[in-house]
Amino acid sequence: MKTFLLSLLLISSSLHSQDDLIKKISGNKSDTVGFRFTTVVSAETTPVEDQGSSGTCWSYSTGSFLESEMIKKGGPSIHLSKIYTARKAYEEKAVNYLRMHGSLNYGDGGLGHDAVNMYAKYGAIPAEAYTGLNFGNDENEFAEMQAVLKGMLDALVKAPNDGKLTPVWRKAFDGVLDAYLGEVPEEFTYNGKTYTQKRFADEVVKLDANDYLEFISGTDAPYYSKSMLMVPDNWMYQPAWNVPVEDLTVIIDNALRAGYTVAWGGDVSEPTFSWKNGVAFTTMEDAEKLTKAERQELFKSPQPEPVITAEMRQAAYDNFGTTDDHGMQLTGIAQDQNGKEWYIVKNSWGDTNDHKGFLYMSKAYVQYKTTAFVVNKKGVPNGVMKKIGM
Predict the structure, then answer these.
(1) Is the dihedral angle over the CA atoms 214, 92, 20, 3 positive or is it negative?
(2) DSSP state, 265?
(3) Residue 63: pLDDT above 60?
(4) 11 or 224: whose pLDDT is higher?
(5) pLDDT digits (tens, 9 = 90+) for 244-260
(6) CB atoms within 10 A of CB 222
(7) 176 burial level (CB within 10 Å; 0-12, 13-18, 19+)
(8) Quick one: 87 exposed, middle or buried, by C-beta within 10 A (0-12, 13-18, 19+)?
(9) 100 phi, psi to nearest 5 deg
């Protein structure tokens, strides 16, 4: 089943975003009345958004994470422009793509640290001041835009103008972005006051990008040291803190119980991830070998889950069983009817599923299928902070 899903994703990459396709194929239509959840802790968040037909989950999830950070610091509860953040990342990625002579992944995708980095470098804009809806569309439609941008970059890699790039290629690249997303305003008004992007970040958002840490878990690098997450969407080649698998949930639990949320990235193409039903878990069975009817039975009530080991995680990553599919925001902890704790997760696929845009993800699933997550360092346990030398 997983091989079939991955093949679909690869074949369709030129026509649809990976997020958009996963959204369509993760709707197991089984009864989840047997899942009963009680909220234990829940951080305040902004309303659920819909990323539309675009691979901008990383911007929406981490943007929502930053919005919750604003709220926790006493700031306003507002939506920031996820498209402004994504656009600045596309501009940066284009430069890296050409510097690497095309030997770099280019597309919608990214990681949580991209949104933090773009905020630090370029500031922020409220969502209503830059929607990215510029040609009569009422939701994001990025396939054509990205095809044009990628074609332009591939032509530039060949350096057809006597083997050198002209100094105006960035202007041409920005012109395509302007056509599809609209020009970025030099100034905009918020609550009757005029701001630039940097001034808005400094005076309204008021977040320090240095407050955030990124964590991964792999056996191929020393624990509590920085290591590179080797996935295509890590186009910045940015390292993150490598911790044991058990620490993934230790850190997340501590952050959520302290009132912080988590910008999570991981694999959601598993047969046991159901967007429609709003649950994701692991199973003692090999879900890929089960029949459709047997898989549907799994969604009728909480199932026993295996203990996730470092070796299991690494094997799934190395054999492409774990892929870098999607980004979401972990916003709280809930208990099921058996007393087991799950994470409350805010998605960016609209509010049409059984939990109005949210879902419940088991801790075992998070340990097994996490690729990376970003969290406020104040939410990290002191023991972990000491081990990483901070």
Answers:
(1) negative
(2) E
(3) yes
(4) 224
(5) 999 999 999 999 999 99
(6) 9
(7) middle
(8) buried
(9) -95, 10
Answer yes or no: are the C-beta atoms of 154 and 102 closer than 8 Å: yes
Fold of 2-387: Cathepsin B; Chain A (3.90.70)
The first and second tokens of residue 140, run together, are 């994001």
Band of pLDDT at residue 234, cut at 50, 70 and 90? very high
Mean pLDDT of 33-48: 94
Q: Which amino acid is at 256?
A: L
Phi first, then psi, for residue 128 (nearest 5°) are: -70, -20
User: Facing residues of 279 across strands?
Assistant: 274, 360
268 near 353, Cβ under 8 Å?
no
Torsions phi, psi for 144 (to 5 deg)? -65, -45
Q: What pLDDT score does 365 carry?
A: 98
CB atoms within 10 A of CB 322: 23
For the chain, give the percent of residues with pLDDT over 70: 92
Q: CB–CB of 235/105 below 8 Å?
A: yes
Domain boundaries, the chain: 2-387
pTM above 0.85, yes or no: yes
* Closest of 307, 331, 341, 313 to residue 243, by C-alpha: 313
Tens of pLDDT, residue by residue over 337-373, are 999 999 999 999 999 998 999 999 999 999 999 999 9
The structure tokens listed for 150 are 């990628």
Count of beta carbons in the 10 Å neighbourhood of residue 210: 9
Tokens representing 250? Answer: 């230790």
Cβ(26)–Cβ(5) under 8 Å?
no
Q: Alpha-carbon distance 53 to 299, whole Å? A: 27
Q: Cα–Cα distance between 130 and 357 in angstroms, integer?
A: 23
Torsions phi, psi of 313, nearest 5?
A: -60, -50
